[in-house]
Amino acid sequence: MTFTTFQEAQAWIENSHRFGDKLDLKRMNLACELLNHPENSFQSIHVAGTNGKGSTANFLKNILFEAGFKVGIYTSPYVVKFNERIGINHDFISDDDVIKYANELSVLWDKVYTDYSEAITFFEILTLMAFLYFRDQKITFGVIEVGLGGLLDATNVITPAVSVITNISYDHMKQLGNTLESIAINKLGIVKPGIPLVTSIEEVSLFPLFKEYTSNLGSSLTMIDFTKVSNIHVGEYTSFTYKNEIYTLQLPGFHQVKNACLAIETIHLFKQSLHLEISVDEIKRGLSSTLWPGRFEIFNHHIILDGAHNIGGIESLEKTLLAMYPDKYIKCLFCMMKDKEHYKVISGLDEIVDEFHFTEIPYPRRADAEELFLESNHPLKYVHHDFIEAFKTLSILKPNEILLVTGSLYFISEIRKLLVPQE
């Protein structure tokens, strides 16, 4: 089949879900070989972790861009537009290029299915599209975010110059296991022999595992020392001092300070590995210019969109919320996917929000609003089956009120369309 419109190409890619997420690298290795290994056409940084991958990847991309390099970035999921997953510098892949590569990969899909009885899946198609686009555009460096886990993720066919693990928290337990150790081992699967690892994990119980794993591979391990961070001010702009340098971020939150420190140390290792010239000022400009939709994104000073969807994400959200708005009346509009640990997330939010409003979006994986409502013990809780009407009503706020919209990036994406319709 040949795609002539963006909608046709997107539909084909997304419908590849129907073949399931087969968790192995057999098809990716085969596809890369048949495509002449586009993943080897650029030096890369590989970013894994439970939370903060997207923010950290964007910090890294913008620092490298400020230093004058042509930088590809591959992240997921998207918040505003499908094309967000693949970008170079400050531009996303065009609709025309998505059509072009979908046609190329459709031919490959048929060949692999016919000759090898293997069906290339949704995330594998996207990953291959990114590799082909980056090769054809002749990027200098790629920042590649892991989709799920690490060891068997489609992106793990690359050999990066530096590997990065942001943190370890409970998420995707069905695929990664029910303990922090099993989740950590899966994410450590991105570490290649002799390739340095930088991490901002703070779970002391996991430190020996990280040290042993990297030691066995002959890979250096850099762990961020957060005692070197001081003077943190969290507001609509966040500032902090790290190793005697002052940095400013447009991304609010204590967790973004951690992500920024991780990016700083990653860049230091990356420039050492590849003998690059990257100045402190270029690092500062890259960090301060970074924006990331749906991550504690503030509209009109009173509406906050945050895509937190697991325990670690909600804990970071709560800490930032209480620091920035200690005296505000907080209304929360909440929708979550049914395969997430919503009970624990709701229990955390029960403690800090003043009103709890549950809703649902027309998306197959979403939990029912009624189900979420029943899991809450909040004294002021409400159900709204029409999320658009709920948002319109709740966003009429008094001066002392804040509306927090959270629970899922899919949900945030839908709400954001109501606030930024021109996108």
What does this structure look like?
By secondary structure, the chain is α/β, with parallel strands linked by helices. The protein folds into two domains: 6-288, UDP-N-acetylmuramoyl-L-alanine:D-glutamate ligase, CATH 3.40.1190; 297-419, Alpha-Beta Complex (Protein-Tyrosine Phosphatase, Chain A), CATH 3.90.190. 41% of the residues lie in helices and 17% in strands. The protein is built from 15 helices and 17 strands. The strands form three sheets. Strands 4-3-2-5-1-6-7-8 form an eight-stranded mixed beta sheet, with helices on both faces. A six-stranded mixed beta sheet has the order 12-13-17-14-15-16. Strands 9-10-11 form a three-stranded antiparallel beta sheet. The longest helix has 22 residues, at 95-116. It is globular, with a radius of gyration of 21 Å.
* Spatial gap, N to C terminus: 30 Å
Give the C-level CATH assignment of the largest domain. Answer: Alpha Beta
Q: How many alpha or pi helices?
A: 15
Number of strands: 17
Strand order of the largest sheet: 4-3-2-5-1-6-7-8
Structural class: alpha/beta
Within CATH, the superfamily of the largest domain carries the name: Mur-like, catalytic domain
Q: Under the CATH scheme, which architecture of the largest domain would be assigned? A: 3-Layer(aba) Sandwich
- The structural domain count equals 2
CATH-derived topology of the largest domain: UDP-N-acetylmuramoyl-L-alanine:D-glutamate ligase
Q: Over all CA atoms, what is the radius of gyration?
A: 21 Å
How helical, in percent, are the residues?
40-55%
Largest sheet: 8 strands, mixed
Mean pLDDT: 92
What oligomeric state do the depicted chains represent? Answer: single chain
What portion of residues belong to β-strands? Answer: 15-25%
